[in-house]
Amino acid sequence: MPKEETNILKQLADGNKIVIQELYTAVFPKVVSFILKNKGDRADAEDIFQKALLQLIARYKVKSFIIESSFEAYLFTVCKNLWRRELNKEKKRVTNDAVVELSREEDDMTMAALEQEKWELFQEKLNEISDNCKQLLQLFFQKTPYKKIVEKLGYSSDNVVRQRIFNCKSQLAKLIKKDPRYNDIKEL
């Protein structure tokens, strides 16, 4: 992690009010905008931002980790992932009159941190495969139709694209499973 990013993380963990205020000024408006565009409100954005900060502090205090991008971009990504997780939880909740027991906040934070670690491992390994595979999988993950992929990347048919995607996914899975961190986080 670049020294500046490490310093921000350390100062955040130490409760440095200036750093926290700078993060609120720089990142929070982007988080609010993202959440408002994705079925949330300002209160949701405040909750998510707080959870993201607490998650980063907890992870920093327990185990060091590397931030490959800028700290602000990383924090925004953590917030986006937490909000997507909240939306997925809402989908899974039973909405009838039965009492629904919600998970404890600490368990929720732990799961979010582990999911973030999984995402980071996935992104790291995605960057290790060939540029062609990376581009193909990014289009696939964006749910781009096979016919558009054929046109965009110049493959001869949908079947060739399907086979290539399968091979690229297999390469990515092998890289992920070979990483020693995989066994620590796969149990999610």
TrEMBL record:
GO molecular function: DNA binding; sigma factor activity
A matching Pfam family: Sigma70_r2
Protein name: RNA polymerase sigma-70 region 2 domain-containing protein
Record keywords, A-Z: DNA-binding, Sigma factor, Transcription, Transcription regulation
A GO biological-process term: DNA-templated transcription initiation
Top-level taxonomic group: Bacteria
All copies of domain RNA polymerase sigma-70 region, residue ranges: 23-92
InterPro entries: RNA_pol_sigma-70-like, RNA_pol_sigma-70_dom, RNA_pol_sigma70_r2, RNA_pol_sigma_r2, WH-like_DNA-bd_sf
NCBIfam families: sigma70-ECF (TIGR02937)
SUPFAM superfamilies the record matches: Sigma2 domain of RNA polymerase sigma factors
